[in-house]
Amino acid sequence: MKHYFLCVLSVAGSVLLTGGGLHPVRADDGAVSAVDPRIGTGGAGHTFPGATMPFGMVQVSPDTDMKDFKHSYPWAAGYQYDDPTILGFSHTHFSGAGHSDLGDVLVMPVSGDVRLEPGDAAVPGSGYRSRFRHATEVEHPGYYAVTLDDYGVRAELTAGQRVGWHRYAFPKGKPAHLLLDLRPSIYDYPGKVSWARLHVAADGTVSGCRMTRGWAPGRVLCFAMRFSRPMVGRTLYNRETDVLYKGFKGPGNRAVDQDAQNGRALEAVFDFGKPDAPLMVKTAISPVSEANAVDNLDREGQGWDFDAQRAKAQEAWKSALSIMDVDGTADQRTQFYTALYHVMLAPTLSMDANDEYRGPDYEAHKAKGFDFYSTWSTWDVYRAQQPLLALLRPDLSSQFVQSLVAAAKNSPFGLLPVWSYQGLETWCMIGYHAVPMIADAYLAGVRGFDAEAALKTMVHSATYASYGDLADYMKIGYVPIDKEAEGASKTLEYAYDDWALSRMARAMGHTDIASEFERRSHNWRNVWDPKSGFMRARKSDGQFRMPFDPASAAYGSDYTEGNAWQYSWYVPQDIPGLISVMGGRTPFMAKIDTLFDAKVDPAIFKNVEDISGLIGWYAHGNEPDHHVAYLYDYAGALWKTQQRLTQIMQTQYAVRPDGLAGNDDLGQMSAWYIFTALGFYPVTPASGEYAIGRPFVPKAVIHLGNNHTFTMIAEHLDAQHPYVGSVTLNGRPLETPFLSQKSVIAGGELRFVMQEQPSR
């Protein structure tokens, strides 16, 4: 996922080791200590190292820069590992997004003189930002700490569901201040803040809101903040310089006299004298109102025991990560549990303590009987992240489905989320991929939601004519490129979504709906060009668009963040049909070989930032290719799938800050890793089937959400034995290279015996 320009066009650590051997380890403290939140914070990945709870609403994390949106791509999570300075600590962040926003409520502890501008990272002392060293950073699930070298301040962060907790130890004898800047934002630009307000109550509570014109235009984020010691002074600023008329002044002739400010460029400095103990700060957020933020703080921000809150956060992560017990080397465990950690960062709770949330109609609504979650990168997470959570946490999966359906009910269009956050829609990316997410959950046995209402909403989303030219798709069976950009990709993705819808409808007994959408699922054939051997975009007159270059990729072209080489495999619902049109198994496999083995200059994609992690034409850093290595299974060459998976795992994942290719995309890249490490993958979500690959950890015990246990064991697994010799399920050999979802849900044992040479 993905990129601003595409969105416009689419509108449309240490590790617990057991001396020398591999022994069963319960995934409790060992799992937590194995997580390294730095993975993905350098270069690609776009993850953040700060503190949050599993699926928590607040993500309090350091921001090393907030640049103009034209140059912000590397800072999509606010933090870049190679940056020399920290700008401050803000309370909202995406994990692994390709486009971005957020970075709300930025605070910076300052000792000594206060500067009101961020300054230049290359010029120490030019602003309020501070230099730091990685040697002083500590990152654990739910906790982050760093020393701000320019101020001599030790900063610590932890989190609750809706409250960010800060602890700042200032140098003795120096004035202590906290700067609050409501101006900057991740993916910034002049004028992004439409309006903000700031208020200091008589009891010292600081609260406010700001509205931004960002990815989700008109988004409002409110906050409430309290301090562990009383202020000895404060100054509120409205630093607008380009407004001709500001109205009349309120009470107070000086900034230090004012209790409130309104405007588009608000800052505040809170003074705390020369404290002899750390200053603690608690900040609650709300997507609905200032009053709700105060209420969230009242309910969830009790007391001033920072260490107790840190322990609560660690306990929450211990509980979340203990869903799997994984054996392996230090690097294997770190990679695995960090991936699981990233999977559990989104979607995020987007509902206040009083059950109110903001919907895509910009109005406040109340959730009844469920928690409302948002932050939906559906184009990414339907592939593996949501199918994984449907297995691991069916209770949460039910909440997710209810949230999706509620969002559609509140939508002015009645549509399921496409790419939404804090309840608001961005219309980024393509397809109606909330459909397969719901279908896969239902077919995996997730219940507790109104399936009839969900199906009705799914049908509406799949038939809303003006969305992505569904009108032509429904009329002529494809999306014509002369009417809608990226017509080839949209046709292919709509066809898969239709198939998933038909699967759920049939399981529910709605054969008429099932038949109609099953028919539509064959529309992929309408963009297949037998002459070139690629999927291509057609014009309204039925002709393929010319000229054609299968290597060409550009935002708004025939394809979405890809080219013909990367998209021509996207028929997960009819792989036998795809093999047939490509000439049979041998030509099919030869073409996949060409995909991986081609010599490709990465510069060809210099203008499409999301296409990365290249192995030949295969781009693991972006999602359309994620199933391709498993396609050899369908043609009978299991050993080739195993070979390609080894190649991908060795080149695209590592225990380093730059150890994630592409963007983690709200956990999709990490979910791919987890499934693949376990030895199977959901090539076609909603099919009830996984393709067998090869394992990358020696043992994993999955504590499923239905109280069953599924164990994967890989005998003789090491670098010299990368191929699968045999696979048994509950002691019986698998007859095909596929594993049913039902057999996993039922619990049991999947055992691989690894060997040195491939079984051809």
From TrEMBL:
<dbReference type="InterPro" id="IPR008928">
    <property type="entry name" value="6-hairpin_glycosidase_sf"/>
</dbReference>
<dbReference type="Pfam" id="PF07971">
    <property type="entry name" value="Glyco_hydro_92"/>
</dbReference>
<dbReference type="InterPro" id="IPR014718">
    <property type="entry name" value="GH-type_carb-bd"/>
</dbReference>
<dbReference type="InterPro" id="IPR050883">
    <property type="entry name" value="PNGase"/>
</dbReference>
<dbReference type="InterPro" id="IPR012939">
    <property type="entry name" value="Glyco_hydro_92"/>
</dbReference>
<dbReference type="InterPro" id="IPR041371">
    <property type="entry name" value="GH92_N"/>
</dbReference>
<dbReference type="Pfam" id="PF17678">
    <property type="entry name" value="Glyco_hydro_92N"/>
</dbReference>
<keyword id="KW-0378">Hydrolase</keyword>
<feature type="domain" description="Glycosyl hydrolase family 92 N-terminal">
    <location>
        <begin position="35"/>
        <end position="286"/>
    </location>
</feature>
<dbReference type="GO" id="GO:0016787">
    <property type="term" value="F:hydrolase activity"/>
</dbReference>
<feature type="domain" description="Glycosyl hydrolase family 92">
    <location>
        <begin position="292"/>
        <end position="755"/>
    </location>
</feature>
<dbReference type="InterPro" id="IPR005887">
    <property type="entry name" value="GH92_a_mannosidase_put"/>
</dbReference>
<protein>
    <submittedName>
        <fullName>Glycoside hydrolase family 92 protein</fullName>
    </submittedName>
</protein>
